[in-house]
Amino acid sequence: MWNNDDACMKCSICITVCPVYGQDSDFPGPKALGPDWFRAFQENPATPVMEHVDDCTFCQLCEASCPVHVPIAHLIARHKSFKKKTTRIALRDRILAHPQWVARYPHLANAPSFLVKPLGFGSRSRWPRPQKRVGRLVSPNEPAKAAQVIGLFVDCYSRGFDQDVLSAAQALLELWGFSVRLLPHASHCCGAAAYAAGQPEEGQRIARATYEALSPDLAGLSLVVTLNATCDSTLREEWPVYWNLPLPVPVLSFTEFALSRAPESFWETMKNQAPGTAGTAWVHTTCRSRVSRGDGILEALVQKAGLPSVEPLNMACCGAGGSYAFKEEHEDTAHALGLVALEQIKNPKEDSIVVDSGTCALHLSQITGAAAKHPAYWLYHRYRSLTERSVEIGSQ
Amino acid sequence: MVVVIGAGATGLGVAWDLALRGVEVTVIDQSGIGFGTSGRFHGLLHSGARYAVTDPTAAQDCREENARLRTIASGAIEDTGGIFVRTQDDDPAFETAWLEGCNRAGIPATRLDPQKVRMRYPEVTGRIASAYTVPDGVLEGFHLMQLVAQDITAHQGTVLTHHHVSAVTTVDGRVAGVTAEGPGGQVHLHCDAVVNAAGPWAGRVAELLGDPIPMHLSYGLMLLFAQRKFPLVINRMKAPGDGDIFVPHQRVTILGTTDIAQDSPEAPAIVQSEVERLMTLGRELIPSLDSWRVLRAFTGVRPLYEGETHAASSREVSRDFKVIDHHARHGPAGAFSVVGGKWTTFRLMAERTSDMVAGYLKVSSPCVTAEARLGSPPAKMAAPESVLCECERVCASDLRAVKGSVDEWRTATWFSMGPCQGTFCAHRVTALRHAVFPEEDPDEMIRHLRAERAKGMIPVLWGANAREYALQQAVRFQTLEEGESL
Amino acid sequence: MTRVTVVGQGPAALFAASLIREAGHECIIVSESEGSLPLWSGTFDFHAPVGDVSNPWSLLDNQPISLSGQEWKSLWESLARFEREAGIPVPDLLPSRGLFTITCTGREKPVFMVPAWQYAQEAAQPVWFVGFDGLADSMAAFQCGAYQKHTGVEANYCEIPKPSKWTPTWGAVRWAAYVDSDGGLDWLKRALQKVSPDIPPGWPVLVPQVIGRKFPERNLRALQMATGHPVFEYPLPPPSLGGMRIRDRWVWNLKQSGVQFLAGRVTLAEPSGQISLEDGREWRSDHIIVASGGILGGGLEISVDGKVHDTLRKEVLGSITVRQDLQMQEWGRLADDGTPRITTCGAQCRGWNPNRDSNGGALILATVFQGLNREGLVAVGPPGAVSERSVSHVE
C-alpha cells in the first residue's frame, strides 16, 4: 500500500509548510505524526496514538514538500484511524465522513445550533445554505453543437448546497459545445471526507460505492470534469494509488479544462470588454489543488477571463479542511488560518474571492466578508452580464 | 578472585555465573561492554532450527537456552517467533532433513499454508514452496549485557572497561594476577584464576597465557534497514549460508549475513561487492528489497574454534563451543578459555566454564543462572524536556543516566543510530557530553561520532540513504562548519 | 514571448526564474517537492580556503567557472536586487571583504550575502550568546566555549528559561511562530532585559535563528530597543527559519509577478522542449532549465549497484566509486553539456564543492548565469567570453 514510508531523512521541510504547526502550539507536526509515528507503530502496533493527531487538516502540503516522497499525510490519516473517540464525537464524525448523506438532505444543515452543539459541532462556522440553479447560457454568435460528451462530477457539496455553481459549470460546458452528463446520478462521495477524518477504510468503502455508481455512466465519455479540488485530487490520486479504483477516463479540473478547451470566441467575448466591477479578484488556490497541480493555474484562468485586478491570496490552507472547521475542537485553528485572508482583503464589499472548493469558499467568505465562489460561477456571471449587455445594446 | 577477560556476552555470563556462586570476580575489557562480536550481530535468539541439519548439538543447545533466556531475561527478549521459508529454487531434500533435525532436537516446527504466508507478508517472494513456524525470537544484546553487568555489580563483582590486558602473571605455574593498561595507567589485579572470554581476541589472550589456541575467525556482513518490516524472523530454508535471514530488531530490520575468513579480530571495513552480493541474495527472499530504506552496513567477527581438525570453510566449523583448561595443555594452572558458541547459548557456555573454574577453586556451590531473573532494562524517561535524538526519542536525562563513554551512551540509548544517522543529534549530544565531562575534547568527539556513522553509511549509498548522506555532509560542513570535508 | 520552464524550486531555480522574468520572458516553475531553501539559513556563500580571504574579489580565480570581475559583481547585484524586491533585507552594497557568521556550535563559517537578521563579522569580535532552554540546537554554553577556544576572543553567554506555553513538540518553526505573537515577543523582551545589565557595552547579542517567521525585522528591532544592544541571529541546522523566510518571500514575489509554480514530477525533458509530468501533463517550452539539485534534491538517483541516474533524461551518468565518499559534484553536467535547449544549473554542476569550499552561493550564481547565458536568455554585465576550466583546487 505504501511507497517510501521508511524514507524520511528528518530534514523537517514538511514542518516548514504545515499550516497547523505554526498555529497550534501543541500540534506535534507532520514528521512526528507521520513517519516517526509509523516507524514506532511498525515496531509496536500498540504504540499510543498522539493526542493532537486529529488537528491535521489533511491538506497534504507536507507530503507534497517531501524530497523523498514519504506519504506523510496518508500516514497521518492512518494514525488518526486509531484515535479513540467519545460516542458523541464518533457520531458527529460519522455524519461528516459521509457528506453524501447531508447532500441528500441539505436542509438538515438548517438545524438550530442547540440541536447540533451537543454533537460536537462548533458555533463559529456557519452552515451553508442551498443555492438555486442558474439558467442556461446562449451564445450570441452561433448555436452550440453537441459533439463530445463530457462527464461533470457532481460532488456532495455542489449537489447539496452549490447548485448555482454546478449549473453554471454545466451551462458553460454546454456553451463551449460539449454535451454534459452529470455523474453520478445519486448522491455519492469520492471518499475524501472520510479519509481526511482518519477513516481510510470507510473512505475506501464509500469510494468503491461511488466508483460502482459511476462506472455504467462512463461509457462514451472523453473526460470527467471536476469542480472541487479535493474531489479532483482524490479521484486522481487516492482512487488509483491507495484504493485500487483507477478510472478508465481521464479526470481534469474545471479550471484546467476551461483553460485548454473553451473556444477562442468565448475568451474574446470575455476579454474584449471592460471589467464589470472595480474590486480585486483574489485567487485562492486550495491546498489540495496546489498539491496535485500547482499554483498559478487558477490565476491564469481568471486573468484570461478578463476579471478585474487579479491578486493571488498569500495563504497555504484556509482552515476549512472540508468538515474540519465545523468541529468544535478545530474551529479556533480553522478561524486563525482563515484570518490570513482577512489581513489581505481590505475591501470585502467590492472584492471577490475565486476558489475551487465550496467549503473553502464558505469559510473564506464568512471570515473576510467578501463573496467567495468557484471560478465557474464567476465566469458564468461575467459572460452572462457581458452578453446580456451586448444583446441589450444590439436590440437598442 | 577470578578475572574474566572480555566484557561481551560470554565473559559477562561467566562473571555473572561465578558471582552468583559467591566467587569474587572482575570482568575486564579493552573497550566497552559488548563492543566486540556481542554488539555486532543480527539480534536473533536462535530456535536452533538454523542448525537442525548441520550442527545437531548447537541446535539442541539453542533450543534449550532459547527457552531458558525467555524466563531469565524476558525484558531483553522479544518473542517474535520466526518462519522458515523454502522457495521453489531451494532443495526439497533439505526440507525433509530439516524436519527430521528439528524433530530430533525437539524444535517445534509447524507447517504453514504458503498461500497464507504470502497473503500475510506480501513482500515475501511469491515462489514459496513451503513454510514452517519456529520459536525464534529477538534478543536485544546491549540491554541483556547491561542487565547482566548490573547483576554482577549487585553481587559484589566489578566490571572494568577500557582496560587492555597486557600480561598474566603466574607463580609456581599457577595464575596469580593480571596486568592491564587503562586510561589511569597500569593496573595490577591479584587473582586465583583467569578466564579468557575475549571472543575474536581469544587467540591473542591465549598467547599471554603461554598456550596458543587455534581460532578460526570469519566475519559476517549485515545490512540494517530503517523500519521493522515484519513482526517476526524470516529465515530461508537451506543449508546455513549467506543472506538467508531477516530479523526484526526493535524498529529496524537486519539482513544477515555473510561468512568470510579473516585474520584480524577487528571488524573489517566493508567491501562494496559483498554488499551488492548480500542484496542479491536478500532479493531472492524479498523481491522488493531495493525499495527498502537502507541505513547502514556493519560487520561482526565470529570467534569460532577450529579444534584439532581443519574445516574446509567456516560454515562447517561447529557453532558449538569449547571450554579449554590450559593446565591440561601447555599453560599454567587456573587459566581457562571459552571459545566458539552462539549469543543464544552464552549462559550455557558460562555455566560449563564456571563449573570448570569452580572445580579448580574448589567452590562447591552450583550454577544458579538458569533460575535467575534479570528484570527489565530501564524505561526511557518521559521528562518534559527537549528531545536530542528525534529518531529514537532520546532526551538529555536518558543520556545522563548512562555511565560510560559516548559510545556507551550510544549503545544504551540508540541515539544517532536511527534514520538520520546522527545528522541532527551528534552535535547536540557532543554539547551535552561536554557539559558533563568537560575534560573530553569535543572536537575529537564529534569527529569520532561522525566517522562511526559514515563508516556504515558509505557502503550503502543508494536511494534515500544517499540523499541522507548528502544532507548530512551539507549539515556538517555548510551549517556546522565541522572542518575539512572528505 | 519566449517561454522558459525551470525544473526545481531551490535557490538556483528561484534565481533563474527572477533573471528570466527580468529579461521579460514567460517562466514556469515545475517541482516535485519543496526547494531546499528551508534547509539552510539563506546566506549565499562565496569563499575559497586559499587566497586572500580578506578580499572576495581576489578569489574569483579559484572558482570552477571563470567569470570576469564585472560579471561576478553584476550577478551578486542581481541577487541582492531580487532579494530586496522580495522584501528580504540584504545590504545595498556588496561586502568588500569575506564575512563570517557563527554556528550554533561556536564555529566561524564563511558567508557573503547575509540578510540583516543574521550575524556576520569580518573578524572575530567579542559577542554575547543567548541560548533558549528547550530549543535543542541552541547550546550557548558549548557554543561560547568553542568560539573562545577557536578564535581566542572574549565571549560570554546566558541561557533563558522556557516560556510557560512550551511543550517538547517545540521545534524552531514553533518557536518562531511564538516569537511572532505578542505574548512571545513580550516574553523574550523581558527575558533579555533581565540579562542585559550583564552584557558589556557594544557587544552584539546573538540569539538563535527563531526570532519570527513573518516579522523577524520587527522582533529584532524590539529586542534591540529592549536591551540597548545590537541583536542578531545565529543560524541553526534544518529546518532553518532564515531559509524559510527567504523562500516564503521570494516565492511569493515570483508568484505575484505571474510565475506559475506547478507541482509534479518531471518524467521526461526532451531537447525539443517537450516536458512530461508523471500525472500526464505535457507542454512545450522554448528552453528548459534543470535546477533540480543533484542527489539531495532528487535530480539524480543512485541505485543499489552504485549507478547514478539522471531521472529527467533517463541516462546513467556513471557509478559512485567503491567505498568512497559521495562525490556528488562529480556527477553534474556542465551547463552546455549535451542538448542545446536543456541546460543544467545548481548543485548538479561539476567542479563545485560547497562542503569543502564554502562557495555555494557562487555556485548558484555562476552556473545559473552560465546556463541562461548559453541559452541566450540573459546577458549580464559587459559581453565577454564565459569559459570553463578543469578544476584546479589546491588540496
Summarize this, please?
The complex is a heterotrimer of chains A (396), B (486) and C (395). Chain A is of the alpha/beta class and 396 residues long. Chain A has helices at residues 13-17, 30-43, 61-65, 72-80, 87-96, 99-104, 113-116, 156-160, 163-175, 192-196, 200-214, 229-242, 254-261, 264-271, 287-292, 297-304, 331-344, 358-368, 375-395, and strands at 149-153, 179-183, 223-226, 251-253, 281-284, 294-295, 310-312, 352-355, 371-373.
Task: Describe, in plain words, how this protein is organized in 3D.
Chain A folds into three domains: 13-80, no CATH class; 149-260, Rossmann fold, CATH 3.40.50.1860; 262-388, 3-Layer(aba) Sandwich (Rossmann fold). Chain A is built from 19 helices and nine strands. Chain A has helices spanning 13-17, 30-43, 61-65, 72-80, 87-96, 99-104, 113-116, 156-160, 163-175, 192-196, 200-214, 229-242, 254-261, 264-271, 287-292, 297-304, 331-344, 358-368, 375-395, and strands at residues 149-153, 179-183, 223-226, 251-253, 281-284, 294-295, 310-312, 352-355, 371-373. In chain A, strand 8 (352-355), helix 18 and strand 9 form a beta-alpha-beta unit. The longest helix of chain A is centred in the last third of the chain and has 21 residues, at 375-395. Among the domains of chain B are: 2-36 and 142-215 and 317-371, FAD/NAD(P)-binding domain (3-Layer(bba) Sandwich), CATH 3.50.50; 387-479, no CATH class. In chain B, strand 22 (387-389) and strand 23 form a beta hairpin. Chain C has 395 residues and is α/β, with parallel strands linked by helices. In chain C, the strands form six sheets. Chain C has a five-stranded parallel β-sheet, covered by helices on one side. A four-stranded parallel β-sheet of chain C has the order 7-6-8-9, with helices on both faces. Chain C is globular. The interface between B and C is large, with 45 and 51 residues.
